[in-house]
Design a protein that fits this description.
The protein contains four helices and no strands. By secondary structure, it is mostly helical. The model has no long low-confidence stretch (mean pLDDT 90).
């Protein structure tokens, strides 16, 4: 699977996972209606399905590499949705995680 396609899958998965988790956060921490949970559960199911589309020989490898993308996407969510700008330590940490994700996913013999 081309790297661009994998990156797109991971980006969509991150959006789905963060939106799904945020729906629970909104319900339980921001006093939103319990109805927020229903679309959140659908979003989390879409997240899980998207990760199955990553072309790798093992689920754990797909999940591990996704972790770096999730961290970076969470900081984008922090800034764009919650209005809190990430600091330099957030950005440096996310860059390190993305580099690690790339190593995990693109090492020799990783595709199925």
């Amino acid at each position: 699977m081309p790297t661009l396609q994998t990156g797109l899958i991971y980006a969509l998965a991150a959006l789905a996972e963060i939106a799904g988790c945020f729906s629970f956060w909104a319900w339980l921490r921001l006093d939103k209606s319990a109805w927020w949970v229903a679309p959140g559960m659908v979003s989390l199911a879409i997240f899980a399905w998207l990760l199955t589309l990553v072309d790798t020989s093992a689920a754990g490898r797909a999940f591990a590499a996704y972790g770096g993308v999730y961290i970076a996407a969470s900081l984008i969510w922090l800034w764009s949705v919650e209005g809190a700008r990430p600091d330099r330590w957030d950005v440096i940490g996310a860059a390190i995680c993305l580099a690690g994700a790339g190593l995990i996913l693109m090492g020799p013999g990783r595709a199925s």
